[in-house]
User: Fold this.
Amino acid sequence: MGEYPSFFGWDLILLLILTRYAVVAGIFFFIYYVWKKRAWTFQKIQSRFPQSIDYQREVGYSLLTILIFTAIGYVVFFSPLRSHTLAYRNISDYGVGYFIASVGLMLLLHDTYFYWTHRAMHHPSVYKWLHKVHHLSTNPSPWAAYAFHPLEAVVEAGIVVLIVFVMPAHPMAVSFFLLIMMVYNVYGHLGYELYPKGFSKSNIGKWINTSVNHNQHHQFFRGNYGLYFLWWDRWMGTIRTDYDSTFEKIKAQSNS
Assistant:
């Protein structure tokens, strides 16, 4: 499979993950919580804003998460374990078509992985040890995207481990997948709904997760466990019954 260039290592992984978090969360935070805060307050899903201590907690736990993600990423792609995975170096080994399709496959796999691990972490026997930290953000901001207890961070990073053991995965494809994940994760914790009125009931929109949907999860702790899509929530009956009406209510106040 060959060796990666010598400049790859834990420091580059750390820089990539930290930059991805800081830039994506930072841009959304600046727009919605600083620049347009007063002008767009009426559009906010929960009218109140988090306090400074909430932002500090979210960033603090996110930095711990980034360190854990870095360690696991290094082990997966740059330690001797790599030779036992399906990770590959040259895009030409599987072609550009597979490279592009693999990103979509990763998203589908991650959505299933996330739904079931997320739902499992809400079980009373493990909730306080794994998931409670993330739910301290009952009114999340973009900085909450990585605000996990260290044990939950390990669970969340498990998707990368799973990917490289079940499908051929190029590190760059994994990076694209993780960038999409970061953007959608930040959107889910944004506190504002970006999709248009009527989206949640449309033929496509009813299967797509929204910021309203995940915000409800943070408010009420039960239901709405999905990440990118809503099919698992709908198939398993875990979507909140007031989701569609809440979505329309939020969009009505946005359009008023």
About this structure: The chain has one domain: 10-191. Residues 1-7 have pLDDT under 50 and may be disordered. Residues 10-191 form one domain.
